[in-house]
Amino acid sequence: MLYHHEAPSHFSGGMISTFVGNKTRQRHGCLADAVSCMPLKSRFHGCGKSAEAAFPLAVVILVLTCISRTASAQPPDDAAKKYQDQQKHLVQDISAIKGSLLTKELKGVAADPEKDIKGVTGEFEKIERTYRSVIRNGTNREAGPDFDALKTGLEYRIFALSDPDIQANYRDLDAAFSNLSRDIIAARSIANPQDQQQFRQMVCRVALPLLEKVINEGNLVARSLAIDILPEMETLSPSAVQRRLEMFDEVDDALIRILKDEKQPDVVKLRAASSIKRFLEKADAVPQVQLALADAMVAELKKPVTAWEYQYYLIEALTHTNVPREVVGVKKASILEAMAEVMQDTRRDILVRCAAAGAVGKIGFDSQINFEPLAWKTAQLAVEAGLTIGQQPPSTRRELCGWHLYTAFHHETAAGLNNSRNPEGMLNRAANNEVVRAAYEHVLPIAKSLMFSKGAVGNNDVLKTNGWVRESKPASLAFDASSPPLNP
Questions:
Q1: Residue 446 gets which letter from DSSP?
Q2: Which has more pLDDT, 336 or 127?
Q3: Percentage helix, strand, coil for the chain under 3-state DSSP, each rounded to 5
Q4: Radius of gyration (Cα) for the chain, nearest Å?
Q5: Buried b (16+ CB within 10 A) or exposed e, 134-150
Q6: For residues 174 and 160, is the Cβ–Cβ distance under 8 A?
Q7: Of 265 and 78, which is predicted with more confidence?
Q8: Rounded to an integer, what distance in angstroms lies between the CA atom of residue 371 and that of residue 367?
Q9: Over 90: is that where the pLDDT of 244 sits?
Q10: Are 457 and 386 within 8 A, CB to CB?
């Protein structure tokens, strides 16, 4: 039986600023310097359905500029300083890339270093009509004039993201990204699902190596925009005939390669984490794919010196997995175990730890999970949040800490409540557990104060919750037989 606790009236009121598609909602604070413009879903219970689209182009550029200057939240020990210096040099090297893959690589254009964008555009215009026709109507042959036009057109569209002249003009860059995004999800006019899928697989097979070239050789803006295209690589869209969305089956591998590439700075990997989140939101990914993506993200999350912004986005992506445990070998609850480790790690930023607590209420689970110690640990974390960020002036970071503590227990939307396979919130996952309910009742006042109070979190709320934590520690702090117990 699901536990449906009515949200406090505050939760249908003011909202944290969010970028949802290209719409900016009201904000009263910033999510720190580096992520003040990151898109975050509409957060509060009762505010309706929302979905995150690709970041607005101006936001991409701003976030890249900010995060490339942001230091890690970890103490400046030798390891942290070395890591930060490596990141700084990686960003500087990639930012210094000035060449254009458009003028360098586009087939049919002579290798002429003096040839400018106008000349390349002229070459594209020669085949543009054929290219548009193929994109609209499809082709079933990977040879001949139609296929050549398709390849040349996609090369132009993709390599345009890397061109300095196009990047110098926002309107040109926005048009380049929009045109590519439209063409990648092409051929919707093909009525037959099998024909549509066959053609779009062809488009993706041509496009993916070109996108990876930009991801590996372009500057920061080009790499980020190319990564943003990856979740658009659908091979079959839902329709009256075909209701299941299917993604190109090499997209997840491409995203994993980015996370594992030591030559990519974290600012680029953050974009990959964002795209993984969108991929998981859209696709009904099989457990093996979800676990492969999760393993790569958890490996990044285990690095102790990465910037908190990157850690935060890795957790945001992991919340969209619904596989409770590994499917081969020792069937560990590996994603939940990673969240528990982050919650307990006092070296990490408090917002990252609260986000991990919120993830406990969303990621996949099964009947073997014991939520008592996790609820108790969340209450302990709420005390820490109240004593640290809760004593600071209101900000979006503070509000988000409160929000994640709240959603650790409570569903975010009606869909989260009614999801019989993976209901959201520990209240709905362990509906009859008295410890979980008691933990929620003690966390809620602190969470509300973090989100809505103009002053510091009250001492009485913190002391009351801390007293409960000290008196109510579960006899066993093991949340799963395959994972180590929580710290006392």
A1: H
A2: 336
A3: 60, 0, 40
A4: 24
A5: bbeebbeeeeeebbbbb
A6: no
A7: 265
A8: 10
A9: no
A10: yes
Q: How far apart are CA 110 and CA 115, in angstroms?
A: 8
CA-CA distance, 84 to 134, in Å (whole number)?
47
Q: Which sign, positive or negative, has the C-alpha torsion 413, 415, 416, 418?
A: positive
Residue 189: pLDDT band with limits 50, 70, 90: low
pTM of the model: 0.84
One-letter identity of residue 410: H
The distance in angstroms from the start CA to the end CA of the chain is 30
Q: Is residue 374 within 8 Å of 433, Cβ to Cβ?
A: no
pLDDT exceeds 60 at position 40: no
Give the DSSP H/E element, type plus range, for residue 213: helix 193-217
CA–CA distance from 47 to each of 262, 338, 416, 472 (Å)?
Answer: 40, 30, 14, 34
Residue 33 contacts residue 70 (beta carbons within 8 Å): yes
Q: Tokens representing 389?
A: 């960020």
As given in the structure block, the two tokens for residue 32 are 């720190």
Residue 255, both tokens: 């995203």
* Whether the Cβ atoms of residue 196 and residue 138 lie closer than 8 Å to each other: yes
Long-range CB pairs of 186-191 (<8 Å, 24+ gap) are 186/135, 186/136, 186/138, 187/135, 187/136, 187/137, 187/138, 188/237, 189/136, 189/137, 190/137, 190/138, 191/241
User: CA–CA separation, 488 vs 6, rounded Å?
Assistant: 31
Residue 72's pLDDT band (cuts 50, 70, 90): very low
For 256, 311, 402, 479, the CA distances from 318, given in Å and listed in that order, are 13, 11, 19, 19
Residues sharing a CB contact under 8 Å with residue 88, sequence separation 6 or more, in sequence order: none
DSSP one-letter code for 12: G
Q: Are 381 and 428 in contact (CB under 8 A)?
A: no
Residue found under tokens 């969108």: 278
Question: Using CA atoms in the order 440, 446, 447, 453, what is the torsion angle rounded to 10 degrees?
Answer: 150
Q: Cβ distance 247 to 283 under 8 Å?
A: yes
DSSP 235: E
CB 227 within 8 A of CB 272: yes
Residue among 343, 237, 321, 236 nearest 273 (CA): 321
Name the residue with tokens 């676990």.
Answer: 291
Q: Write down the residue that tokens 């999970």 correspond to.
A: 369
Percent of the chain with pLDDT over 70: 79
Most distant pair of Cα atoms in the chain: their distance = 77
CA distance 486 to 488: 6
